[in-house]
Amino acid sequence: MEVEKKFEDLNLSPWLLNSFKQLGFKQPSNIQYNTIPAILSGRDIIASAKTGSGKTASFAIPILSKLSEDPYGVYAVILTPTRELAVQIGEQFNAIGSPMNVNCCVVIGGIDTVTQSLILEKRPHIIVATPGRFASHLTNGLKVALKFCKFLVLDEADRLLGEDYELEIASILEHLPPPNQRQTLLFSATMTKNLTKLQSIALNEPFIFEDNSKYDTVDSLKQEYAFMPPQAKDCYLVYILKKHQGQSCIVFVNNCYAVEAIKGMLNKLDIPTVSLHSFLDQKSRLAALKTFKSGKVKVLIATDVASRGLDIPDVNIVINYKLSNSSKDYIHRVGRTARFGRSGRAISFITPHDVTLVKSIESVIGKQLELYKTEDEEVFRHLKEASTARKIVEVHLDEIEFGVKQKERRAERNELQKKKKDEYETNENNNGNENKKRKNIENETPKETTKSSTPSKKSDKTTITKDNNSSSGSSSSTKETKTKKNNNSNSNDDFDGISLFSNKKKKTK
C-alpha cells in the first residue's frame, strides 16, 4: 500500500504550509516529494517528469523556504526559454511567497529596458528571465548583484542547453558564482543528452530524478489522429471545432504566417479565436493569453511558443494542425491538456507525408494513436467556406507584407546570432593564443638560464645556479638546483563561466 504523501513530511517552514492551505495545495506530486528534500539539503538537481506534474513548485518551494531563513537579493536566478512561461513562473513565486513579501522580478523581451534596469538595481530576491534579455542587461554594463546568488534554475533545461541559447547562457554564467558556490537545478519534461552531459561537467554530484519514462504522456490523455490530404486541413479544423463547440482548444501550427492566416479564417467563420506567436509584441501576447485563460475565447492558435510549461488547466483539446519534426515537441504540445489528473484529448492532422513521423512518435511514447472518427460528408461541407475565408485573409496579410516582415525579422535575428557567435569564437581564440604564449615563455625560461650560466665541465646537469653569497671566481661553491616553474595561472581556470558548453583541457604539469 502506497504511503500518503504530505507537505508536512518535507521539513518545510510553517508559513509555507499555511500558504499551501490558502492556495489549495493538498499534497505534493511525485517530483515535488522526491526533489524538495534534496534541494533543501544542498544538492544539485537534474529532474525530469511528465508535463503538468508540478515542476515549477518543485524548485519554487525550497528556494522560498531557504530565502525566508536569510532574505537578501539576488538570491536565485531562474532562466526559461519563453516570455509567457517566465511570467507564469513569476506569478507562482509571488503567490507562494506572498506571506514573506517576496520580491520577484520578471526580465523578458518586449518590455522597456530602462524600467527593468531600475528594478534589477534594487536587488530583487528572485529574478525570472529569458536568457536573451537578461544577458543583454549584463553585457551592456548593468551591475546586478549576482555575486552571492545561491540558486541557478534552468526550467525547460533541454531547450535552454541547445545551440539557440548557448551564447546567452555562457554570458550569464560569467556573472554568476562558480558551481561549487551555488546550487544548480535543472528541470524538464524530457531528458536529453545535453542534460546527461551536465552531470559530469558542471554539477556537483547531482541528485537525479526521473519520473517514469523519459518520453511519456499521461494515461488520462486520449491521443488520436485524423488522416487527410494536405488541402483539406482547414475544413477538417472547422469541422472539429464546431463539433466540440464550447470546449477550450489549442491549435499548434509551425510558423507565424500560418497562425495569423488560420486565426483570420476562423474569425470570419464566426469561431472566435486569438493567436500567440513570436511576431506579436509582448502586450498583445499577454492579452491573448489572458483572454484565452479567462474563457472569453475558447480557441488559441499558436506556435511552439505556447508548447512548454504554460499552465492552463481547462484546456480540453490540443490539435496538431502541423506536426513538429521533433518527438519532444509533440510531447510538450499535447502536455497542455490532461494536466494534474484531468482528462484531455490530442488530435493530430496526418497527411501521407507524415506517416513516417507518426511512427517515430509512436515508438517514442510507446503508444499507438487512435483514429479520430469523422463524417466525410459533414467535413467537406466546410471546404468551400474555409478555403474562401483563408484566401481573403492571406491576401490581406500579403498587402501588409506580414510574410516579408517575418522573413526580415528572422534574417536580422540570424545575423545578430552569427555576429555574437563570431565574437565569442574570436575571444576564445585570443584567450587560447595568450595561454600558448604564456606556456612558451615559461618553457623557454630554463633554456635562457642555461645559456647565461657557466656549467662545470664535469657536471652533466643542464641547469646550475650560483650561490649569491659566494664569490664570482669560486667555481667550487656552485650548487645544482632544479628550476621552479612559475605558476601564474588564474585560480578561476577550473570555472570560466562557460564550462557548460566546453570541456576543460587538463593542465600540463
TrEMBL record:
GO MF terms held by the record: ATP binding; hydrolase activity; nucleic acid binding; RNA helicase activity
Name of the protein this chain belongs to: RNA helicase
PANTHER family, per database record: ATP-DEPENDENT RNA HELICASE (PTHR47959:SF24), ATP-DEPENDENT RNA HELICASE RHLE-RELATED (PTHR47959)
Pfam families: DEAD (PF00270), Helicase_C (PF00271)
GO cellular component, one term: cytosol
Motif (Q motif): 5-33
Chain intervals with Basic and acidic residues compositional bias: 407-424, 440-450
Similarity-based family: Belongs to the DEAD box helicase family.
Keywords: ATP-binding, Helicase, Hydrolase, Nucleotide-binding
Domain DEAD-box RNA helicase Q: 5-33
Cross-referenced InterPro entries: DEAD/DEAH_box_helicase_dom, DEAD_box_RNA_helicase, Helicase_ATP-bd, Helicase_C-like, P-loop_NTPase, RNA-helicase_DEAD-box_CS, RNA_helicase_DEAD_Q_motif
Annotated region (Disordered), positions in chain: 407-509
Domain Helicase C-terminal: 220-380
Compositionally biased tracts (Low complexity): 465-478
Helicase ATP-binding domain segment(s): 36-209
